[in-house]
Design brief:
Radius of gyration: 15 Å
Number of helices: 3
Order of helices and strands: EHHEEEEEEH
CATH topology: Alpha-D-Glucose-1,6-Bisphosphate, Chain A, domain 4
CATH superfamily: START domain
Strand order of the largest sheet: 1-7-6-5-4-3-2
Largest sheet: 7 strands, antiparallel
Number of strands: 7
CATH architecture: 2-Layer Sandwich
């Protein structure tokens, strides 16, 4: 797998509210700018909570357009979710995760992502693209979670 990129952001919300937004795939097109369509293909129950297991996403981020399927693994404690690529058009591989670390009234959200594209791309450009994608995703997530609290 390619090198991974990691970024963090502090969100003014408890982990359970953040994970509820992350797990609500049906609403991604409302707040995740590049996600145009989402279809939950399968679900599983972890503890007493049913979560998506496989999800097909349609992405349109300007020059990068893709339809791909991710498989998710949800930590029973609700503080982490990880995923990997099952099938993609532009991607050969993708691994990622959100890790939530509560700190009083706030939570640090750490996003880790590694993507291997089907087309060759210089490592420096790929890492820069990953960092831009992660920065936007974290800011969109923070905005969505904090707005849902008001």
């Amino acid at each position: 797998m390619a090198d991974e990129s990691t970024q963090s952001i502090v969100v003014n919300a408890p982990p359970e509210r953040i994970m509820a937004v992350i797990a609500n795939f049906d609403e991604y097109p409302e707040w995740a700018n590049a996600v145009k369509q989402v279809e939950v293909l399968s679900e599983e129950t972890v503890g007493e909570v049913t979560r998506a297991k496989q999800v097909r996403l349609t992405l349109d981020a300007g020059p990068v357009k893709d339809v791909y399927t991710l498989e998710y693994d949800w930590a029973p404690d609700g503080l982490m979710v990880s995923w990997h690529l099952v099938k993609g058009q532009m991607q050969k591989a993708q691994e990622g995760s959100y890790r939530l670390e509560p700190e009083g009234e706030q939570t640090t959200v750490t996003y880790t992502l590694a993507v291997q594209l089907a087309i060759p791309m210089i490592g420096l450009l790929r890492r820069k693209a990953e960092k831009v994608i992660m920065d936007i995703a974290l800011k969109d997530l923070k905005r969505r979670v904090e707005q849902s609290a008001s």
